[in-house]
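Re: the pair you flagged

First of the two:
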Amino acid sequence: MFTQIQINKFERVLQKIIEYLTKTNISSNEVLYQTIQKLSLKERKGIWKQIGEKIGASAAEVHDYFFNTWQLQFYEDATVHKELLKDIYSYGRWNCFFLFTM
């Protein structure tokens, strides 16, 4: 579990590493997230270990924090689509085509 200090450092260190790798200036967390998503697996290799060394955490802890906590701020809550999903399920695969063409 990260301390508040580690959480604050995580974002700053992540941003600095990504700016260094991409030679760009990152203006917001959203741009940071989008930039990370564009990196290849080869480019991402070692990022979690580097961050962990800077904030006093293991590479696995940093990786898990990124994927299980930090990036969730960029996802929309699926419950707003609950009724649409129920309709799609109840109409079946063939009829769901008509839901999106109306």
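Second of the two:
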Amino acid sequence: MCNNKIKALSFGIITVILFSITTGCYSENEKNIRIPDKEINMIQVNGLKIRASENSLWGDFSTFVEALEEVVPLDTSVKDTVRREVNYYVVTLRYDDESKQSFYFFQMGSSGDKWYVETEDRTIYQNADFFAQYFYSTSTVFQADAISDNELDISDPERLKSIIQLTLQLEDWNISYSLTDLRALFALEMLNQAENVSPRQEVVQAVRKKLSGQMEQYYYAVQNGYSVTEEELKMCMDEQDKIIKSASNFAEFEAYYEESGTTYNEYRQRMKEYSRMQFTIKKLYNAAYEEFRHGNDRIGERTCEDFNEYWTYFLLDVVYPATETYNEETLIPLLDEAEAFYNECLGIGTE
């Protein structure tokens, strides 16, 4: 009798344990992604918004959604090794009630061929290889600008020599490309704009407008934590130099500097602060793009169709209003000083 009770008890315990283990496995599977029963207005892949179309690979989105719901949680054996890396693609489902849901597709390593997807709660799923066909269908959106033939544009050598000579002349006057003294930058932009704009007064206005926009963006970026460090600046300049020096006609390009009694490397160092401004603005630009590609497409009450629109209204509605005091108290006086210097010292008066 006792033996029967012990056997029954043992069987019950084993059954409970097996049931618990089995239930645990099923609960893991039950964590599969489930898309809400809502109409999807559009899908955004990084910076590209896609609407349903019979003529598109995405169709009415149903095939994509079905495939997304079939991915499974990571095997326990690889949970500690699979991590989303720096390069990944954000897919945001935008529903008709204006809610949204984002997923992050990625591969492991540069040579990895398996696709994974991570949800907003940081759960990672495997078997997401279906994304490859959608990725390649929109891959042109993600490609960086390329130098088609790796050749520098020196179709206007006289203009290049004029820029070099202007820089050397300013240096003789102890005027450098500075972000707190805009005389050198103003003179450089006058040279750059002269071929595109006329008459002279319109050139001046175009230069003031361009420098004003750049400096306000730079000031906003610095004030909001997007300054580039000295290490970052050096790295960015080195990367640019590497591309330029690998050009097939770099020797010809360098010769124009040598004819003027300097070198390309020396010129680059003279332009260091100008490069600082450019890379700082680029850092702000990249941060804004990250916001947009992660599904944040609104500036105030405005919904933006693409990133160009988002960046435009980010500047108009956020950056420029925040820099009004700097513009009035600091920037306009600097531009006035730079314009007066240009007219007086370079012998060119306004018409």
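The mean pLDDT is 86.

-B.
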